[in-house]
Amino acid sequence: TRRSARRVHRFKREIVVGNRLLAPLVVALLIAADEPPKRSPADLDELQGEWIMVSMEQKGKMRPKGDVDLFKLKIDGNRWIMTYNGSESAERTFEIDPAKAPKVLDLTVGNMRIVFRGVYKLEGDNLTVCHGIDRPTEFKTTVEAGVLTVWKRAR
């Protein structure tokens, strides 16, 4: 009948209009979900420079002080460059998200695309980082996993 045909036509029109409104929202949500962690310019700026390792704990065990003293870190932009005894031992890129609690740090190892997920805190001239394959939720290691480092800003 004519009346049911109008209902079907109106229903189809509502679906089309609804989809037109819904499609941009879905696209925006998908783009937002795929964004890397956000950087806070203030935190990123604060991290820049040279750092000296104060302590390191790996899988629940402290590294000897004589070993730790040989590690240096240079943060340049989003580059994380560690040296051991004066020679470059590792270069990574990193992303931070200081809006999370605790603050989030992801270190990516060069071409291998291995990501170490971590947390960090910046307190004055001290930088504490705890990371592993799985992101820790607190600043400690376990016998099975994790690296906890404390760095002091070089003067």
Q: What this model shows, in words?
A:
This protein is an alpha+beta fold and 155 residues long. The chain has three helices and nine strands, in the order ααββαβββββββ. The chain has an eight-stranded antiparallel beta barrel. The longest helix has 32 residues, at 2-33. It is elongated and about 90 Å long. 14% of the residues are buried. Residues 15-39 have low confidence and may be disordered.
Give me a quick take on this structure:
This protein has three helices and nine strands; from the N terminus they run H-H-E-E-H-E-E-E-E-E-E-E.
Fraction of residues in helices?
Answer: 25-40%
Main sheet record: 8 strands, antiparallel, barrel
Structural class: alpha+beta
Oligomer state equals single chain
**Tally of extended strands?**
9
Are there runs of 5+ residues with pLDDT below 50, and where?
Answer: 15-39
How would you write the strand order of the largest sheet? 1-3-4-5-6-7-8-9
Measured by DSSP, the beta-strand proportion falls in 35-45%
What string, H for helix and E for strand, traces the elements in order?
A: HHEEHEEEEEEE
Shape: elongated
Distance between the termini: 86 Å
Output the radius of gyration.
24 Å
Q: How many distinct helices?
A: 3
Mean pLDDT: 80
Q: Which tags fit this structure?
A:
155 residues, eight-stranded antiparallel β-barrel, alpha+beta, 28% helix
